[in-house]
Amino acid sequence: MPYICKPNVAKTILQTEKTIMHTPRELLYIIIKKEIDKEFGAPFTGAFEDVFGEAYDKEQYIATGICCSLFLSSIIKGFPTEKLHTYVRCVRETYPLIVFNCNKYDELYNRMEETSLSLMDKDLTFHRIETGKSDILEAFDFVTNG
Predict the structure, then answer these.
(1) Which of 24, 33, 99, 109 is deepest in the core (most CB within 10 A)?
(2) pLDDT(106) > 90
(3) What is the DSSP string of 57-115?
(4) Three-class secondary structure of residue 128 per DSSP
(5) For the chain, what percentages of helix, strand and coil (3-state, to nearest 5) are there?
């Protein structure tokens, strides 16, 4: 029987008798118990891949992009912060987020193909929201300072 990460027990990512590796998207699905919009996190993921190339694993780019989108979902649409923090703690154990600093923010922002993002609200409903540069930079701050 699989167990889900609880806020205070992130080291128990999903386990059965053997450890199961879940993709970042599967982990989010397990936490929110709902299908994920295919565009969720994609603009961030694409920018990270463009800037960092093969320096990281594809799943690390996806995990980092989802973290950015979850953060913006929380501050813009009221997505539950408990679910945000549960996801971040759990995903970091399997897919360490990519490492970058504020020197890369403008380059990453300029590589984003869209600033109209798929974000989730408090009821876990997806919405297409136009975001500004300051929102995107805050998401980068969340990842780099977390």
Answers:
(1) 24
(2) yes
(3) -HHHHHHHHHHHHHHHHHHHHB--HHHHHHHHHHHHHHSPPP---GGGHHHHHHH-S-S
(4) strand
(5) 55, 10, 35
